[in-house]
Specification:
Elements: E1 2-8, E2 19-25, E3 32-41, E4 47-49, E5 52-58, E6 63-69, E7 78-88, E8 104-108, E9 112-114, E10 117-126, E11 132-135, E12 139-143, E13 154-156, E14 174-177, E15 181-190, E16 199-201, E17 203-207, E18 215-217, E19 221-224, E20 228-231, E21 235-239
């Protein structure tokens, strides 16, 4: 993978909208989807915004070019690439657009944090034409920056060792979803840091159940040194927004 960027200044006669051209090169052997987070800064180095651009399904060995528009603020002078996340194109979350061949969409929200307790929601929608059943919690695989498995983390289906009152300890049961209906599950952990090296997990590979293909989300888990991550069972939440 190679990603570069270069800022283009507006000419005097043009509106003061700067753009940053950037290129993405896929050096893998399968198509990948890239999400790039930029830092747009002033001359003093203050970060003015952190826009994201997603480049879907870059074929292996190909380079594609895109442009980031940075708005009209006169003091937006610099742009740099702050973070890159990449997942195989067939595992990329599909929040919109055509329904994936699996018949489901899985996405992760931005999460919530309070006094060291972290919670991230996983959201699943049956966007297909057939009813489906979910039973138990989703399967998880934790991956590092290089998308390699992260060792030494206990994935718990009982959250009492992490936090109480989360609802994660409710008895699991089958969840039946008609087309257009949704379910949610949750990840909960504490980012406490004690002895040892803190663990950060950018990628989580999620399987809704044994019969479903994986989807790789990027919730950026800062697990600290606790070595624990709890996951709840799927719960029915009704019809998805925009579904009839």
């Amino acid at each position: 993978m190679r990603i570069t960027s270069a800022v283009k200044r507006p000419r005097a006669a043009e509106p003061s909208v700067a753009t940053a051209d950037f290129t993405v090169t896929n050096r893998e052997t399968v198509p990948f989807t890239y999400t790039i987070t930029f830092a747009v800064t002033s001359l003093s180095g203050a970060v003015l915004e952190s826009p994201q651009e997603t480049v879907p399904s870059v074929p292996p060995g190909r380079t594609v070019q895109r442009a980031l528009r940075m708005g009209t603020a006169h003091d937006r002078k610099h742009v740099r690439i702050a973070k890159v996340r990449r997942v195989p194109a067939d595992e990329a979350p599909a929040a919109t657009g055509p329904c994936p061949p699996s018949g489901i969409r899985i996405t992760a929200d931005e999460g919530d944090a309070a006094m060291g307790l972290r919670v991230v929601g996983l959201h699943l929608t049956n966007c297909g034409t057939r009813s489906l059943r979910l039973d138990g919690p989703p399967g998880l695989e934790l991956l590092d920056e290089e998308r390699k498995p992260v060792p030494g983390i206990d994935i718990l289906h009982d959250a009492k060792d992490v936090a109480s009152g989360t609802g994660f300890d409710d008895p699991p049961g089958p969840v039946d979803l008609a087309p257009g209906e949704s379910a949610s599950a949750g990840l909960v952990w504490r980012n406490t840091t004690g002895a040892g090296t803190a663990v950060n997990v950018p990628y989580v590979r999620v399987k809704a159940g044994p019969a479903f293909p994986p989807v790789t989300v990027t919730p950026e888990l800062d697990l600290g040194t606790t070595g624990r991550l709890a996951v709840s069972p799927w719960k029915h939440v009704g019809r998805a927004a925009g579904q009839q």
